[in-house]
Amino acid sequence: VYLLTDKFPKDEIYGLTSQLRRAVLSVVLNIVEGHARNNRNEFRQFLRISLGSLAETDYLLLFASRRNYLNEAEHDKVSDMRENCGKVLWKLMKSQ
Fold first, then answer.
1. pLDDT digits (tens, 9 = 90+) for 29-67
2. Which residue, 20, 27, 30, 95, has fewest beta-carbon neighbours within 10 Å?
3. Does domain 2-94 correspond to CATH entry 1.20.1250.20?
4. Could you say which residues form the signal peptide (predicted)?
């Protein structure tokens, strides 16, 4: 996502570019933080937050595509990655 957002218009640097990058990082960082808590219930809560960030990422990618900041192939590739990430998150949640 960082590589894709590098080509977004410069006037989006503090808007869409920043928001999308933060949402993507939030997915991973919430998993890390939740795991560090060493508490199953807290970990589950952080996994739910990660899923929310993943949903935010999905919408932002759609928005970027509609603004023609991403072509169809780029959008499809990153959407597939997001879908796979979501499946892993769900499995992780169910295992807790």
1. 999 999 999 999 999 999 999 999 999 999 999 999 999
2. 95
3. no
4. none
Query: Which single residue is written with the structure tokens 């780029």?
Result: 74
Task: Please tell me what DSSP assigns to residue 8.
Answer: S
- Please give the angle made by the CA atoms of 83, 3 and 6, to the nearest 5 degrees: 125
Q: Please name the residue that has the structure tokens 């499809």.
A: 76
For helices 72-94 and 40-66, the axis angle rounded to 10 degrees is: 170
DSSP structure class, residue 11: G
Structure tokens at 81: 């990655």
8 Å CB contact between 47 and 82: no
The owner of tokens 């949903």 is 55
How far, rounded to the nearest angstrom, does the alpha carbon of residue 35 sit from its chain's CA centroid? Answer: 18
